[in-house]
Structures are given as structure tokens and as C-alpha cells.
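C-alpha cells incoming
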């Protein structure tokens, strides 16, 4: 009796395995109807879409149109004025004349370099791990591809996000000429935190500290002047 039951269960299991295998084969070979228009031409790769949208045609915008769409967005327009105000304040301190050779590190999509250009700074270089042309080129802020003293001014609003902040500071001080300036905008902080940040700048001294607003966030701006010797 037990043997008969076991044989029957084995047969039922085999039937279910065969049915499941057939269904799997049908699903693989049949193109999902929700993905492809009936008028779409037959293509070999459409039998194996990686997602429900892979087989749908996608338009790739040329870079100028892509940038125009980005720069005209409300999100972009809402963030840009805060950078312009920030750099205008530095200009009021006697920095950032139009001929300044400026460097922006960890520049993201390019708000900072665009703001500098809008206030008249004509020579702005911006870098990020992922480029965003034409405003931002790809380079590692920990290992900048520039000569010593190539810039008059360097700025970053993302020192706290760096993998090795001390290394980013080293590169800022190396690439800014003696007598030039480095500016960092960090999360709003007090005197103790400012002094800790200042310890990273071995070749510079603090010349200005101010609370500012960037991208709608309260930040603390710390301005350093690069010296001729390490302090």
C-alpha cells in the first residue's frame, strides 16, 4: 500500500515538474505584451527584456538640450542664487575679481561654477568624480591633475563628504598659489568645530568665518589664506 502511494506521489510530482518547465520555457520565449507595441519591428533582444521598460524606445537628448532642461528647472533656479550671494560676499571682502583663476572641488552638477561665472569670474575650473559637462570635469579631489599654485582661489561645499578630508585639503593648498585663498562651507558649527577644521589646513590661516545659507541649508563658511610656510 505504502509503495503504491509513493509511486503515485512520484508520478504527480513528475507531472508538476514537466508542467512547470513548459510554463517557464513559454514565458522565456514569449515577449511580454505590455512591453512591445504591435507595430514594433521584431528584434532578437526583445525576447529577453531585463525590465518591463527595456524594449520601449528611449530618446537620448543631445547634451545642449539636456543641460538647457536642467538649468531651466525650478530645482536648479532655487539653488543657484544662494551660491551667487555667497561668492558676492567674498568679492566684497576683496576676493574673486574677474581675473581670478578659481577651482571648485566636489562641484556636483555645477551650481558653484555657474554662479562664479554669473558674477563675472571668467576662469573657473570645477571637478567632481562624475563629470557634468560643460561646467564640471571628471577628476578626483583627493588627487587633482593640476600643477602646484595653478589657482588663486579654491572652494568646496562638500569637505565633510570626502573620504579623506585631510587629503582634499592638501590638494587645495597645493594647487592654490601662496597668498591665494581656500574657502570651505560646512554644516553650521561653532568655534570648537571650526578650530578642528582649521587643523587640517597646515599651510593656511583663517581670515574669515561666517554663517551663510547655501541651497536652503544653514552652513558655516571658513576662509583661509595660503601662507608661504607651514604653521
Amino acid at each position: 500500500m505504502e509503495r503504491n502511494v509513493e509511486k503515485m506521489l512520484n508520478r504527480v510530482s513528475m507531472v508538476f515538474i514537466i508542467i512547470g518547465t513548459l510554463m517557464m520555457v513559454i514565458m522565456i520565449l514569449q515577449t511580454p505584451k505590455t512591453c512591445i507595441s504591435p507595430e514594433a519591428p521584431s528584434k532578437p533582444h526583445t525576447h529577453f527584456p531585463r525590465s518591463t521598460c527595456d524594449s520601449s524606445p528611449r530618446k537620448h537628448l543631445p547634451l545642449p538640450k539636456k543641460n538647457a532642461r536642467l538649468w531651466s528647472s525650478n530645482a536648479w533656479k532655487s539653488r543657484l542664487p544662494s551660491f551667487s550671494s555667497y561668492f558676492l560676499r567674498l568679492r566684497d571682502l576683496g576676493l574673486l575679481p574677474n581675473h581670478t583663476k578659481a577651482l571648485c572641488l566636489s562641484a556636483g552638477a555645477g551650481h558653484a561654477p555657474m554662479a562664479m561665472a554669473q558674477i563675472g569670474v571668467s576662469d573657473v575650473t570645477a571637478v567632481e568624480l562624475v563629470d557634468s559637462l560643460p561646467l564640471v570635469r571628471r577628476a578626483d579631489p583627493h588627487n587633482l591633475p593640476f600643477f602646484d599654485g595653478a589657482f588663486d582661489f579654491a572652494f568646496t561645499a562638500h569637505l565633510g563628504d570626502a573620504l579623506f578630508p585631510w587629503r582634499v585639503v592638501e590638494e587645495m593648498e597645493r594647487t592654490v598659489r601662496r597668498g591665494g585663498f581656500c574657502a570651505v562651507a560646512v554644516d553650521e558649527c561653532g568655534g570648537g568645530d571650526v578650530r578642528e577644521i582649521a587643523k587640517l589646513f597646515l599651510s593656511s590661516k583663517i581670515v574669515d568665518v561666517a554663517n551663510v545659507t547655501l541651497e536652503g541649508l544653514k552652513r558655516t563658511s571658513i576662509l583661509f589664506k595660503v601662507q608661504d610656510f607651514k604653521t
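note: Helices lie at 2-29, 63-71, 74-92, 111-118, 165-175, 191-198.
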